[in-house]
Specification:
It is elongated, with a radius of gyration of 24 Å. The protein has three domains: about 45 residues, Ubiquitin-associated (UBA) domain (Helicase, Ruva Protein, domain 3), CATH 1.10.8.10; about 130 residues, Tetrahydropterin Synthase, Chain A (2-Layer Sandwich); about 40 residues, Orthogonal Bundle (GTP Cyclohydrolase I, Chain A, domain 1), CATH 1.10.286. The strands form four sheets. The chain has a three-stranded antiparallel β-sheet. Strands 6-7-10 form a three-stranded antiparallel β-sheet, covered by helices on one side. The protein has a two-stranded antiparallel sheet with strand order 3-4. It has eleven helices and ten strands. Helix 1 crosses helix 2 and helix 3 packs across helix 7. About 40% of the residues are buried. It has about 270 residues and is of the alpha+beta class.
Length: about 270
């Protein structure tokens, strides 16, 4: 049967698939639009199965915040190559998915949410077939706070959220500055209380081993190790880190200097 150019274009606009793939799908479906979409989806499943073990460390890390700045989401939509990650069509899809993610509270909710007549999970499989690369969600985190700010590092490689305890006049600037800090310095926790006990235990043992190699007496190890842990917390927890724009201040000190607020939480998603 004859397939018209307008029918092919309609399917292409709906799925993002190439012209020839759309035409083949319509021919196989005998012109039935819905069946043609199903044909493309099955192709995606086949490609996804073949590429399941591929590394998808490229893509786009994005941050979205709602209109009243009380909730944000960071997520990464991953692919295999930088070439695809920089494609305008891919970035348009990634941003559309990120907008929908803002309405979800978990990755499970997000993957089952409806998008263009199918679930997000089905859309990812469909696009794997369309693009020919493994497409998946690499990270998904949400944050609620009285004020939520965000930052996306150049090239969509890192996305961060920061929550403030109160809304101040310059909340947008302050939260962005702290979010930039979180992107650049990759802290492991907000403060000492947020560091996992197993990490603390491991760092103390490493410190003690170093001190033993230096010949320090066993009786002194605990006290010296505690001092080393203070340095560890300063380097690796967000509010205790030196503020990258003014190393005379900690991040907590910077925030306190600009208004009556404090950092309550942060989230960070990065590619790779």
């Amino acid at each position: 049967m004859k397939i018209t150019a307008s029918e092919v274009n309609k399917l292409r606009q709906s799925t993002g698939a190439g012209m020839m793939d759309c035409k083949k799908a319509l021919v196989e479906a005998e012109g039935d639009f819905d069946k043609a979409i199903e044909v493309l989806r099955k192709k995606g499943q086949k490609v996804a199965a073949n590429r399941a073990d591929r590394d998808s460390s490229e893509g786009a890390a994005l941050a979205k915040v709602n209109s009243d700045n009380t909730k944000g989401v960071v997520l990464s939509i991953n692919c295999e190559t930088d070439f695809v990650a920089k494609n305008d069509t891919y970035l348009t899809l990634a941003n559309a998915l990120a907008d929908l993610a803002l309405e979800c509270d978990s990755l499970e909710d997000f993957l089952t949410a409806e998008f263009q007549g199918m679930t997000i999970a089905e859309k990812l499989i469909e696009q794997t077939g369309v693009i020919g690369e493994k497409i998946e969600i690499g990270g998904f985190k949400t944050l609620h706070a009285p004020y939520v700010g965000s930052y996306i590092h150049a090239g969509n490689k890192i996305a961060t959220l920061v929550g403030l305890s109160t809304v101040i006049d310059n909340a947008a600037e302050v939260s962005k500055n702290v979010a930039m800090q979180a992107a650049a310095m990759n802290p492991i926790a907000l403060n000492e209380d947020g560091v996992d006990a197993s990490i603390i235990e491991k760092e103390i043992e490493i410190a003690k081993d170093q001190l033993r190699q230096e010949g320090k007496p066993e009786a002194m190890l605990d006290n010296i190790a505690k001092g080393k842990m203070k340095r560890f917390f300063k380097d690796n927890t967000l509010v205790n880190q030196d503020y990258i724009k003014d190393s005379k201040l900690s991040v907590a000190g910077y925030v306190k200097s600009v208004g009556d607020t404090e950092v309550t939480a942060f989230e960070r998603v990065a590619l790779g």
